[in-house]
Design goal:
By secondary structure, the chain is α/β, with parallel strands linked by helices. The chain has ten helices and 13 strands.
C-alpha cells in the first residue's frame, strides 16, 4: 500500500543508478529514464530483472508521459569533459529538462527534487560556501553552460513553487565519487585512479594547491533521500557534500599510496574558470535533515579503486 511510483531522470548515470538501487531496496516502483549520453546500461543491468524497475531510453528534452508520485531530476552531464562537448545541449538539458519535469510534477501533483550543484557558486569568494552565498559565476565562460544552466533550473523550480504550488526540493551536490564512475569521466578522482592503476603520469592542473571536498556516493544517496522525505514546505536549497577539504596534490599522493603506483606527477596549465577552492557548509543539512557524511576519504577511495581495478581487468 505504501509503494511509490518514482521517476529518476538520469537514472543510468553514476549517482542516478545508486539512487534507483536504493529506491528499489526500499520497496518502490522505479522508472529510470536516461538518454545514455553519459549514463550506461551496465550501471543498471543488475536491476533489469526486478519487476518493479522500468527503463525508458529518452531525453528530458522530449515531453515526458508517465504517472508518478515522486520525481528525482538528475538528468545532465556533470563532468566538464562531457558538458563542454555540446554546451548548447547541456544548457538546454538543464533548462528544458527542468521545465518538462516540473510540468510533469504539476500534472501528477508529485513531489520533485532537483539535483543542483556546487557549481552554482562558481569560483567562490566566500569559503566555505553556505546556501545563502549567491556565487561568483562567469556567465560566458567555457563552464557557463553547466553553471548557469543549473542556476536557471533552480530559478524555475522556485518559480513553479511560488506560482503553481509545486512541492519542490533542491539539493546542491558537491564533488561525489565512488563505484560506477566512468573510466573516461574526466573528473579528478577517476582521472587520478585510472592513471595510477596504469602507472601513467598523474596530471595536475595548476600547482595542485586548489582544494576540493569529496563525498562518497553512499553518503550522498542518504542525503538526497533525506531531503526528498523532509517535511513539506522545506524546499532548500541544501548543500550536500563532505566538508573535509584536501588539495589536489595531497589527493594525488594519497591515491599513489593506496594503489602502490609508480606514477609520477606532472603539472599542466589551470583551465579557465576552474574554482580555486570548494568546500560545503553543511549546517543546514545537519539541522534540517539530520545528515552528515560518515565514510572517510581513505575508505571511499579504497572501494573506488577496487571498482576501477575490476573494470580495467576486463578490458
Amino acid at each position: 500500500m505504501n509503494r511509490k511510483r518514482i521517476l529518476v531522470t538520469g537514472g543510468a548515470g553514476f549517482i542516478g543508478s545508486h539512487l534507483c538501487e536504493k529506491l528499489l531496496e526500499e520497496g518502490n516502483d522505479v522508472v529510470c529514464m536516461d538518454n545514455l549520453f553519459t549514463g550506461q546500461k551496465d550501471n543498471i543491468r543488475h536491476l533489469m530483472d526486478n519487476p518493479y524497475f522500468e527503463f525508458i531510453r529518452q531525453d528530458v528534452l522530449e515531453n515526458i508521459y508517465v504517472e508518478c508520485d515522486q520525481i528525482y531530476n538528475l538528468a545532465c552531464p556533470a563532468s566538464p569533459v562531457y558538458y563542454q562537448y555540446d554546451p548548447i545541449k547541456t544548457g538546454k538539458t538543464s533548462v528544458i529538462g527542468a521545465l518538462h519535469t516540473l510540468g510533469l510534477a504539476k500534472r501528477c501533483q508529485a513531489r520533485i527534487l532537483q539535483a543542483s550543484t556546487s557549481e552554482v557558486y562558481g569560483d567562490p569568494e566566500v569559503h566555505p560556501q553556505p546556501e545563502s552565498y549567491r556565487g561568483c559565476v562567469n556567465p560566458n565562460g567555457i563552464r557557463s553552460c553547466y553553471d548557469e544552466g543549473k542556476r536557471m533550473a533552480e530559478t524555475l523550480f522556485f518559480d513553479y513553487y511560488r506560482q503553481h504550488g509545486v512541492d519542490i526540493k533542491v539539493v546542491r551536490i558537491f564533488n561525489t565519487y565512488g563505484p560506477r564512475m566512468r573510466l573516461d569521466d574526466g573528473r579528478v578522482i577517476s582521472n587520478f585512479i585510472v592513471q595510477a592503476l596504469k602507472n601513467d603520469d598523474i596530471t595536475i592542473y595548476g600547482q595542485g594547491q586548489q582544494t576540493r571536498s569529496f563525498c562518497y556516493v553512499d553518503d550522498m544517496i542518504k542525503g538526497i533521500r533525506c531531503m526528498m522525505d523532509s517535511q513539506e514546505g522545506f524546499t532548500g536549497p541544501v548543500n550536500l557534500g563532505n566538508p573535509n577539504e584536501i588539495t589536489m596534490l595531497q589527493l594525488a599522493h594519497k591515491i599513489i599510496e593506496l594503489t602502490g603506483s609508480k606514477s609520477k606527477i606532472v603539472f599542466l596549465p589551470l583551465p579557465q574558470d576552474d574554482p580555486v577552492q570548494r568546500k560545503p557548509f553543511i549546517e543546514l543539512a545537519k539541522n534540517k535533515l539530520n545528515w552528515e557524511p560518515t565514510v572517510t576519504l581513505e575508505n571511499g577511495l579504497e572501494r573506488t579503486i577496487e571498482y576501477f581495478m575490476s573494470i580495467l581487468r576486463h578490458l
